[in-house]
């Protein structure tokens, strides 16, 4: 699962962070042609977004602060850990 980590919270609003993650996802989809989608995340200081990319593009969750919304952060991490291949 690709992820993009930045120390600047303003990097979440910049397209270069999002494009970096999209390039990683495109690389996975190209290298592993059996994958139909790729999940990813951006974490810019404490601002997190969850992403899903397929062969047509990507979609992101609304941003959330992992310090203020700890339950959402833990739910996301556990969701990734408990995911199966289906």
Characterization of the model:
The protein starts with a strand and ends with a helix. The mean pLDDT is 91. The protein is built from two helices and five strands; from the N terminus they run βαββββα. The protein has 86 residues and is of the alpha+beta class. The radius of gyration is 13 Å and the shape is globular. Helices cover 35% and strands 30% of the residues. The protein has helices spanning 15-31, 70-82, and strands at 3-6, 37-44, 47-54, 57-60, 64-65.
Entry summary:
The protein has two helices and five strands, in the order E-H-E-E-E-E-H.
Question: What key phrases describe this protein's structure?
Answer:
five-stranded mixed sheet, 5 strands, alpha+beta, 30% strand, 86 residues
């Amino acid at each position: 699962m690709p992820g993009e980590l930045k120390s600047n919270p303003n990097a979440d609003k910049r397209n270069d962070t999002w494009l970096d993650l999209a390039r990683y996802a495109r690389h996975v989809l190209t290298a592993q042609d059996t994958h139909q989608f790729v999940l990813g995340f951006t974490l810019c200081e404490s601002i997190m977004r969850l992403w899903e990319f397929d062969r047509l593009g990507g979609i992101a969750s609304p941003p959330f602060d992992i310090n203020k919304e700890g339950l959402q952060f833990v739910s996301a991490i556990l969701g990734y850990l408990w995911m199966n291949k289906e």
